Amino acid sequence: MDRDQVWQAIDAHRQGVADLLDQLSDEDWRLPSLCAGWTVRDVAAHLTLQQIGLGDVLRELPYVRPHGMNRLILDMAHRRAALPTAELVARIRATIGSRRHNLGVTPLETLIDILVHSQDIAVPVGRRLALDPAAAGTAATRVWALNWPFRARRRMAGFRLTATDTDWAMGEGAEVSAPIEAILLVLTGRLTALPDLSGAGSAALAARLSVAA
Questions:
Q1: At what angle do helices 69-80 and 54-67 cross, to 10 degrees?
Q2: Are residues 16 and 111 in the same domain?
Q3: Each residue's pLDDT tens digit, 118-129
Q4: Distance between CA 5 and CA 1 in Å, rounded?
Q5: Which residues pair with 163 in a beta bridge?
Q6: Vertex 171, ends 165 and 175: CA angle to 5°?
Q7: Are 86 and 174 part of one and the same domain?
Q8: pLDDT tens digits for 153-209?
């Protein structure tokens, strides 16, 4: 996907997430998401924070050293989650069409964020929010190339992952096949997608990841 296509995919999935959130009950918003330690509300709040600039970063710097980056990200989401539900949804909708992204990342990280977190929300509330295979493949390739935070290449060492619904494959070793949506979730640590894996190496990979979780 070229840069324009990446942003089009981001916008489409932002729209899908906002539409889904509008349908949820108060109870749904309080459910645990697929992201460990985060509620559905926390994840939605996090998705309003995809356009953080230099000023925002400077204001948060005092929190980074004592708590670490991962805790900082969660704390920011917790603070934003205090906003009214309708405002959280409105803030996600307000990002549609904008090509701003967080300082220090590329649009590809923004794509990963919206695709994966859309499933963090949709799966626990029992809704289907399909990922575009081309977009999911582009995101999975970027996840594979990154070291932090997912370390996917190291965790998947010894396996060949192949998508069944788009032209995508990475790694060397025992074959593991799945729809690209499931592969993206597994690459980013969402083990709920493990039952979607098949192939000679699927049981061994599932066992490895389950032990490491």
A1: 120
A2: yes
A3: 999 999 999 999
A4: 6
A5: 178
A6: 60
A7: no
A8: 999 999 999 999 999 999 999 999 999 999 999 999 999 999 999 999 999 999 999
What SS3 class is residue 156?
coil
pTM beyond 0.85: the answer is yes
Same domain, 10 and 78: yes
* 64: in domain: yes
pLDDT tens for residues 56-78? 555 655 554 555 556 666 777 77
pLDDT for res 58: 54
- Of 122, 155, 176, the domain-final residue: 122
Helices (H), 24-179: 26-30, 40-46, 54-67, 69-80, 85-94, 107-122, 133-145, 152-155
* Cα dist from 181 to 31, 55, 123, 124, 184, whole Å: 22, 35, 12, 16, 5
Start-to-end CA distance of the chain, whole Å, equals 32
Q: What burial letters (b/e) apply to 92-114, b meaning 16+ CB within 10 Å?
A: bbebeeeeebbeeeebbbbbbbb
Domain carrying residue 181: 133-212
**pLDDT at position 53 over 80:** no
What's the CA gap between 121 and 44, in Å, rounded?
Answer: 8
Kindly state the tokens that stand for 133.
């295979």
Q: List pLDDT tens digits, range 133-145.
A: 999 999 999 999 9
Q: How many domains does the chain have?
A: 2
